Amino acid sequence: METTNFKIVSSNSNVEWTGRKVTGAHNGTIGIKEGNFIFNDGIIQEGNVVINTSSIKILDVTDPATNAQFAGHLASDDFFSIEKFPTASFDILTVREVSDSTYYLEGNLTIKDITHVVGFEATVENNRNNITLSGKLVIDRTKYDIRFRSGNFFKDLGDTLIYNDFELDFNITAEAIFSEQAKN
């Protein structure tokens, strides 16, 4: 069996986020700090991704002062508490092959030191020395103590309501860092 460890290339990887509210949506990016994936015989077996929460950017708010205010709010305890929790992570627990290049990944998602099992489909292209992994993860923010303007916790929010689910669309590139042969 051939085992290959792929290290995430943060500069060639991106995560785009979208949060929705009654009156529209906001979107932006967030950076990947580090991570890796282990493949056995060309098939993903395990891995982890560490997100740098302090790298969150808002793309749809173009006024610099409003953007800075919004970014500060996302960094606050109302949302991601980035001073206390500078990273979030996803650790793969199980992998199920859906088709030749599509897998269902299930794992522990940790945000604000709160962990829940989540799952999603990811497309993986394996070119032996590098891989790309892409997919979309939908997260219920309230499970991670992000309750600001959630209809689950506050009444009569009207058009200030923020929906509980937010999306992370990711495109990750990783390069092989070593390869070893092992016999069963």
TrEMBL record:
It comes from the Bacteria. Coiled coil: none annotated. Residues 5-175 form the Lipid/polyisoprenoid-binding YceI-like domain. SMART domains: YceI. Pfam families: YceI. This is Polyisoprenoid-binding protein YceI.
